Amino acid sequence: QRFPVVVVGAGPAGLTIGNILRAAGIDCLVLETETREFIEQRPRAGVIEEWAVRGLEQRGLAENLLARAQRHTQCEFRFGGQRHRLSYTELTGHHHYVYPQPLLVTDLVREYADVRGGAIRFGVQDVQLHDLDTDRPAVSYTDPETGQQQLVQGDFVAGCDGARGVTRAALPPERARIARHDYGIGWLALLAEAPPSSDCVMFGVHPRGFAGHMARSPEVTRYYLECPPGDDPDNWPDERVWAELQHRLAATGAPPLTEGRLIEKRVLDMHNYVVEPMVFGRLFLAGDAAHLTAPIAAKGMNLALHDAFLLGDALVAYVTKGDSTGLGGYSEACLSRVWDYQEFSQWLSEVYHGTSSGDPYRAGTTLARLRRVFASPSAGLAFAESYLGKDPNS
Ligand code: FAD
Prior knowledge:
Elements: E1 2-8, H1 12-23, E2 28-31, H2 36-41, E3 47-49, H3 50-58, H4 63-68, E4 70-72, E5 75-79, E6 82-86, H5 88-92, E7 96-98, H6 101-115, E8 119-121, E9 125-130, E10 138-142, E11 149-159, E12 177-193, E13 201-204, E14 211-215, E15 221-227, H7 238-248, E16 261-276, E17 279-280, E18 283-285, E19 291-292, H8 300-321, H9 325-353, H10 360-375, H11 377-388
Parallel strand pairs: 1-2, 1-11, 2-8, 5-13, 11-18
Antiparallel strand pairs: 3-7, 4-7, 5-6, 9-10, 10-11, 12-15, 12-16, 13-14, 14-15, 16-19, 17-18
């Protein structure tokens, strides 16, 4: 078997690249360890930046999203028992879209496999990369139906297999630097079968720990609770979760949260990493395979889409016109946005977690930071711009 491009991983990054290639008539093979049903239901992100939606739209990938996504124009911080709203759309003219990641993945896989006729294998095992520093790289995997090992040759390999994949490990340590940051905190990530309790995202900055509220759909809401890293979700029975959320998100004049059955409860140990460069020979990493941002600022999927647009377009330019400019500048162009978002995540993390750190000095500076966002128009605008993410075309 031979394909110009082999894409490892069918998440937002891999499927977007596959779609861009197929739209240009380029054959590619997407390899995915999970089943189609699984990836179409895996809950994760929801907040998508406006420029990313435009990027999907320009590539014919946003029809359902634009018809169904909610538009968000403001967010609310709750601290000191008070509500503080920031209308970022009023400040910038831009907004966020909220569209659950499983719906986006469902749209992308349908478009790639069923409409654009792209090849995809689900449930593959033992994926391994070979000969990446030659112009004939290859990927081997075990076929789930036959149990046979298959070898696929390509001109390029796109490593889009997320934080737990294998492609990042194929970069020789002497050719790539991995920068890692551990926040030393955990978040209990929750999905509730309950309508949102506010028309916007809410951040509770509380001495007992951060709490977050993010709409996903009219029926489902994502919540977060700061907890010790490595905490066991079993330590968090539903009654404790709701009591803590009600307490940390309480504010004068705010109605209590609407409670419901908790359908996801897992602890995330908050950490980030960045691989530099994101390229080795004919292997190009994209998305979480290359860089992770803890969901503090809701940036990971947006970065995955940014990489995918650049890599998809660069591969098309090379395969159809022999133009290697995009591939040559790929890593640098991605990393500039990656580091920008990493810095904002760090800034925001201190805002979320300084008050509960137990250190009165950090608590004091955190509250000063927050007050400045609301008191100073230029600080409010700077926050809004980072929160929305810069439009790559502006
Ligand atoms: P993934 O989505 O992880 O896709 C990788 C794919 O590769 C998977 O399907 C996986 O099964 C497959 N795979 C793994 N190993 C192999 C292998 N060896 N061979 C083949 N396939 C393999 N981001 C935002 O922008 N906004 C948000 O609001 C947001 N909220 C989040 C909330 C939570 C709780 C979490 C955990 C994350 C959140 N994120 C958010 C981050 C976002 O979900 C990720 O950044 C995004 O999924 C990255 O996309 P990706 O395509 O790079 O990787």
